[in-house]
Amino acid sequence: QLQLVESGGGLVQPGGSLRLSCAASGFRSRYSAIGWFRQAPGKEREGVSCISSSGGITYYIDSVKGRFTISRDNAKNTVYLQMNSLKPEETAVYYCAARDSRYCSGSGYGYWGQGTQVTVSS
What we know:
Distance between the termini: 40 Å
Largest sheet: 7 strands, mixed
Radius of gyration: 13 Å
Helix content: under 10%
Structural class: mainly beta
């Protein structure tokens, strides 16, 4: 049983920053790649970033490259998403998810958190 809990969302002005946290529990968490997803109002969920189990390999969608940074501290069983220069269109519920793989490649995320709201607005 792998459980994930997101935190760190909130209201931020355009151009501002937030750091999201994903706290993982369960023995398998250290062996799992973890991704961040977001779902804007009326839109499908989209993948934003992913990090391998070791933290050595990361991926980002083009729209966030250079602004977002994913990292993990396995000693704390926590994955972070640092989001800088946020844009209003990035308002969404942000979720972390884990998969039964060390790597980000491949399909399927079997474990999901409940999400944390990020609102980018003046």
